TrEMBL record:
This is DNA-binding PucR family transcriptional regulator. The keyword DNA-binding applies. GO terms for molecular function: DNA binding. The keyword DNA-binding applies. InterPro entries: CdaR-like_regulators, PucR_C-HTH_dom, PucR_C-HTH_sf. Coiled coil: none annotated. Residues 432-488 form the PucR C-terminal helix-turn-helix domain. Keywords: DNA-binding.
Length: 490
């Protein structure tokens, strides 16, 4: 459901909950009775009405049934699902059954035979008649055809740099190419726009209403209807491959995230071994990312960037919990590795994104939960730069004590409380004066310098303060308690 939700899928009912394991995919054949196993997901092709859907759902032994439609679920279908125990998923009717079948097979069967996107590019190039690139929604190159002879300079830069050069992107955007891709599946011929950017034929790669990317063919002139139709077919095939790749990646991310959360909660070494992490010299990083008005958009993008690539190619393992990205990173005594990781992640996000981060202390498997707590507390202190527990533990301690004070557990009477009340009632600055005197370790001249007053003025204040409350300044324990109370008092 987590993956299919991105295709406009709604879980309408799940009588047995979401923890049902699926092992196969079956297709409903309206012409004959479809036998589905108890652990199958049944794709309800050719179901013309709610009554027919109710008959299918009520009579199947499948664990889940997928139907085209929009919520809410018809009451007859809901009653049938409760009888049979089958979960019912409603999918936006604009999503073709072919795409659903491919994604479902990837999710359930593990994505065997997902195919080669480069081979798709080769086939399109051969049929349409020109070098091909397949790009994602951010104009990054995912695959390209073997045939690239005689291409223009922009095509060369695109393939070598793995994305469309900025100047070329601006020219294409000005011509309205990306607006067309967002709205239409029809191929668009783009004439030569600059000296280095030749003619192009482009078509959207789409899953239902979601734009996944685009296919570009370098051509000098508009093509005939047959070649244009071939490009559309190639774009549909590319969509299947992209959906399968995304589904597999999402499954890997979810499995990794589950293990990371378990490790942070329980500190079990077995989870670290399954994640491919050492059992010592680890740190937990907590990251929040904010951009624009979306509450979780930047956080989801940060999670996607943090988990991009194969597990063995990434130093850390990550999970998104609420709007906080947690990453367990091997880095030992030196937290610089963790700080560099946060900064590298920030460079992967949009320029307007604000990244806040906290880095917990060094941990082994058993102390990972403690490192996570430290990372959370450091995150709360972050104002832009990553906050590292090793350097900020004093601020963390004072923040904990401040939380205690906010809960009403700080004594409401005593020297500091008396001075704060006097300041509020008479406009004096006695609490500030005592804070400076304690910070200067009793050096009146240094305290006066910090306060920008004459030393005699400070001494006079100290005398007046002693008349307001008892100030046992010669007692080390009392001085420590007053310093702490002042540090956590707003």
């Amino acid at each position: 459901m987590d993956v299919l939700g991105s295709l406009g899928t709604h879980l309408s009912c799940a009588p047995r909950g979401r923890d049902v394991e699926l092992r196969g995919v079956a297709l409903h054949d309206p012409a004959e009775h479809t036998a589905a196993a108890a652990d199958d997901v049944l794709l309800g092709l050719g179901v013309p009405s709610p009554a027919a859907a109710a008959r299918l759902v009520g009579g199947t032994s499948a664990a889940a049934v997928v139907l085209h439609g929009a919520p809410p679920l018809d009451e007859r279908v809901l009653a049938a699902a409760k009888r049979s125990g089958a979960a019912v998923l409603l999918v936006d009717p604009s999503v073709p059954w072919g795409q659903l079948a491919n994604v479902a097979q990837t999710l359930v069967l593990g994505g065997q035979g997902a195919g080669d996107l480069f081979a798709v590019a080769d086939v399109i190039a051969a049929v349409v008649g020109g070098p091909v690139t397949i790009e994602d929604q951010q104009s990054r190159v995912l695959a390209y055809s073997y045939r690239q002879q005689g291409v223009d300079p922009v095509r060369v830069q695109t393939i070598l740099g793995r994305r469309v050069p900025e100047e070329a992107w601006q020219a294409l955007d000005g011509y309205g190419v990306f607006t067309h891709l967002a709205r239409s599946d029809e191929p668009l011929f783009v004439p030569k726009l600059t000296d280095q950017l030749g003619g192009r034929l482009v078509a959207a790669v789409r899953a239902g209403r979601e734009l996944l990317g685009s296919v570009w063919v370098e051509v000098d002139d508009p093509v005939d209807a047959v070649r244009a139709a071939a490009l559309v077919d190639g774009a549909r095939t590319a969509a299947l491959h992209l959906l399968r790749a995304r589904a597999s990646a999402d499954l890997e991310r979810q499995a990794e995230a589950d293990l990371v959360i378990e490790a942070l909660d329980s500190g079990l070494p077995a989870n670290l071994a399954r994640l491919g992490l050492p059992s010592t010299d680890l740190r937990v990083i907590a990251v929040q990312a904010h951009a624009g008005e979306g509450e979780h958009g930047a956080a989801l993008l940060a999670f996607s960037r943090a988990t991009a690539g194969f597990g063995w190619s990434r130093p850390g393992r990550s999970a998104l919990f609420g709007n906080v990205l947690y990453t367990v990173l091997p880095c030992g005594d030196d937290p610089a590795t963790a700080v560099d990781w946060v900064r590298a992640l920030g460079r992967e996000l949009p320029a307007e994104a604000v990244v806040l981060a906290g880095v917990g202390g060094r941990a082994d498997a058993a102390s990972l939960p403690a490192s996570r707590g430290e990372a959370d507390e450091c995150l709360a202190l972050s104002e832009g730069e990553p906050v590292v527990y090793d350097r900020a533990w004093a601020r963390v301690l004072l923040r904990r004590l401040a939380a205690v004070a906010e809960a009403g557990r700080l004594p409401s009477r005593g020297p500091v409380a008396d001075l704060v009340r006097h300041d509020a009632e008479h406009g004096t600055q006695y609490a500030m004066t005592l804070r400076a005197w304690l910070a200067a370790q009793g050096d009146s001249r240094e305290a006066a310098r910090v306060l920008s007053v004459h030393p005699n003025t400070l001494r006079y204040r100290m005398q007046r303060m002693a008349a307001v409350t008892s100030l046992p300044l010669d007692d080390p324990e009392q001085r420590l308690a007053m310093a702490i109370a002042l540090a956590i008092t707003p």
